[in-house]
Structures are given as C-alpha cells and as structure tokens.
Amino acid sequence: MKVEHVLEDQVENQEPQKGKELGLDAQGIQKTMKLRHYLGDGAGQVPLNAITGLVGMLTYFYTDKVGMAAGVVGTILLLARVLDAFTDITMGVLVEKTKSKYGKARPWLLWMIIPTLLSIILLFTVPISASSTVKNIYVFITVVLATGVVYTATVIPYNSMVALRTRSIEERGKMGIFRAIFGYIIGTIVAVALIPITNLFGGDQKSWIIVSVVIAIISSICLYLAFLASKEKPTEAHVEGKGETITLKESLPLLFKNKYWVIMLFVLFLMNMMSVLTASTGIYYTKYILGNENLIGVMGAVGLIPVVLGFIAIGPMVKKFGPTKTIRITLIMGGVAALIRCFMPYSFTGALVLGGVTSFATIPLMALSIALINNTAEYGEWKFGKRTVGLINSANSFGGKLGSGLGAAIIGWILALGNYDGTLAVQPSSSIFSILLLTVYLPFVFFLVIYLLLRKYDLDLKYPQIVKELEERKAN
C-alpha cells in the first residue's frame, strides 16, 4: 500500500475519535465543531453582508452623490440582479463538479479573496463627470461583477459548507447564529454608520471610496479566516457515489419536488426583499420624515439593543422550541409591532420602540434560515436518493437574489412614482407617502406572508428519523 493511502486511512480512523470527544447533540447526531470553527466560519459572512449592504445603499449614493435618476437606478439594479441570479445555478453545478485537495466548496473561499477586494471598491468609482450613458453602463457592469460573479462564487460554496461540515441541526443552527452575528455587525456598520462616517470625511464621492477600501480589506481578511477554519466532512453520498455526479437536468426537477426546499425558496425571496427595504430606506425616513438624516445613527445605536437581546434569546428559544417554531414565534411579534406602527408612522418614539421589536423578530429568521435550507438536503437525499448540496444552495440563492434585486428596484420605482427628487430639501406629499410605504407599511405585509409560509415547514420533527434512516442505508 502506498504511503499516502496509509496516511489517508490513519486520518479517517482518527476523525471518529475526535468527533466522539465532542459528543452527540440533543437529537443523537454526532457533533464535529468547536468554538474556533464557529468563529472562523462566522467571519466568512462579513464580505457577503458587506456587498449586499453596500449594494443596498447604492440607490442613495447614485441619486444623491452621483446625480442619477431614481427610476433609472432602480431599473439598472433590477436588471443586474435578474442577470446575476441566473449565475447561481451555474455556480451550484461548478461546486458539485469541483475537485481539489481542499474539497469542492472550501477552495472557492480562497480563490475569491482578491476578487472580493476589487469588486467592493469598484462599486463607488463611478466616473462622475461622464455622460449619463457611460454612468449607466459602468454601474450595470460593476454591480453585476460584485453580485453576479464575486458574491455568487462566494456565497454558494460558503452556504454549502453548512451541509458539508455537519449533519447536526444543533451545530447548523449555531453556525447560522455565528454567521448572523458577524453579518449583522458589518450590516449595521454599513446601514447605520456609513452615512455619518462619509459625511465626516466630506460626504462626497471620494469619502465613499475611502470607506469602501477599508471595508474591502476587512472583508478579504475575514474570507481568508473562513477558509482556514472550514473543513469538509465526507458524507455517505460521497462514498456511495464514488465520484458519480448528478446532472442539472436530473437535479432541478428533484428540487421542485422537495416541498421544504420550495417553501424556503419563497421565504428567502421575501426575506431578502424585506432586508433590502429595511437596510436601504432608513436614510430616507430620517431625512424627510423626521427631518434629520443623522438620526439614522441614533436609531441604529438604539436598535442594537433588541439585536443583542435577539442573539442572546435565540439559543435558549431554539433549545426549547426548535428552529422553525422559534422563527414563527418571533415573526408574530414582529408582525404585531409592524401593524401598530402603521397607525403612528410619524412617531420617532414608535420608530425606536416598535422598530426595535421588528429588529428583534428578524434575528432568528436571519440566523436560522441557512440551517433550514441545508436540512432540505437530507430530506431530498432520503426522499429521492440524491444529495445535491451545491444546487440546493444555489437555487435558494437565486430566489434570494431576485428578492433583493426586486427590493432594490422597488425602492427606486416607488420613489419615482412619488416624484422623489434627491436635489430637493423638502419633498412633495407624494414622495412622503412613498417613503412611508417603503419604511412603515410594507414590512407588516412581509412579516405576515413569511409567517404563513413557515407554518407549512415541519421538517424539524422528521429530521432525526431521516438522518437515522440515511445512516442505516450507509451501513447496509
């Protein structure tokens, strides 16, 4: 026997022993992760949320700093998202076919470090003195590069690591929580601190570029840390398949037969739309409804309280209710708060208090959705005998991108319908209503619809038996 084969056998024999030291989760499934793994994995969310957060702020940047029309910006962002959404499926296929010493998903985290750095900076280097046509083309190309190429080539492998790293719902849930914490930190910085910080440096395009360079460097470092901390755990599908791959033609019909995957497809679509609206319209609310754009910093600072409470509460809630029921409970809380706010849309106190409740309510959805998505991989393998982790995550990312793209476009369209003009200090009443529609009324609709969808997701109850049967198939 060759030396390398002997070493491989020794590593394989040692892995179960290391796993046994970690014990079993509450459902009797073997654990595989330690704290350093969660921290490193969570850091990988920083570049992803940095890109989505910055793209969400582009409407304001393009309209108020570059001088582009809101309706044109909304249409460009939608077209870019529709185009780059179709790259998700291609990326899912690439992940399934990738073979390297690091595995099939992990190497992409390493390969995308430099592209991430460059794509973030390019978003803000619009040639401001160029013609409208040149600006439109530049914006379209750089947004597609950032979201359709770099983001896609990072998020699909990164999300696939949840299923490739462990089969434990408990560990997948913790991965989601750590990812959400890291993602929320950078997301909050972008949504809340970006305007005050750029204003501090002059508020012009140069100040935005300077801040983007800093964010780009931090994002690249975090992506490298995620690569170092990640590891792919072989599954029985890898062993039994012996390199056999399922074609796209075979896998796509199976995805749409997977009822839980379909539910999560629509949930992600709506969740990303709501997230973009929430993150990108606060500046309009504080500037034109409350009369002071810098209040967004105050609201963001106060808003950190319910977020911290949400991350503290999510662990005990998941332990008691399970991930799906935890999300449903908090969605009810958020929906009620959003409904009450509809009756007091001009209240700063209402925005702080009720907005805090809605922020708390989104934490479990944001943190645990990645686990709910990847749990559908086991269901699909159990139901149809095929395990397609990359495609499951790519197809759901497709829905998420369409949601965020449509959300960004809706902002521009609704503002345009309300005759919004970024050059005006005082907006007409039609613009005021459009801002209230985006910031106050629509969130209630999102909470309600997402809750109704997740009432049909009962995979948590079936999951332990599914994993047990899959293990029995492997043994036989």
Q: Kindly report the average pLDDT value.
A: 83
Strand fraction equals: under 5%
CATH homologous superfamily placement: MFS general substrate transporter like domains
**CATH uppermost class:** Mainly Alpha
Low-confidence stretches: 1-19, 235-243
- CATH architecture level-2 label: Up-down Bundle
Overall body shape = globular
Summary keywords:
Growth Hormone, Chain: A, 20 helices, disordered N terminus, single chain, mainly alpha, 476 residues
What does this structure look like?
- The model is unreliable at 1-19 and 235-243 (pLDDT under 50).
- This protein is mainly alpha-helical.
- It has 20 helices and no strands.
- Helix 10 packs parallel to helix 14 (259-289) and helix 15 (295-321) packs across helix 17 (348-384).
- It has a single domain (41-231, 246-475), classed as MFS general substrate transporter like domains (Growth Hormone, Chain: A, Up-down Bundle).
- Helices cover 81% and strands 0% of the residues.
- It has helices at 3-22, 35-43, 45-56, 58-65, 70-85, 87-97, 106-111, 113-122, 132-165, 169-200, 205-229, 236-241, 248-257, 259-289, 295-321, 323-341, 348-384, 389-417, 429-454, 459-475.
- The chain starts with a helix and ends with a helix.
Please sum up the structure shown.
With 476 residues, the protein is an all-alpha fold.
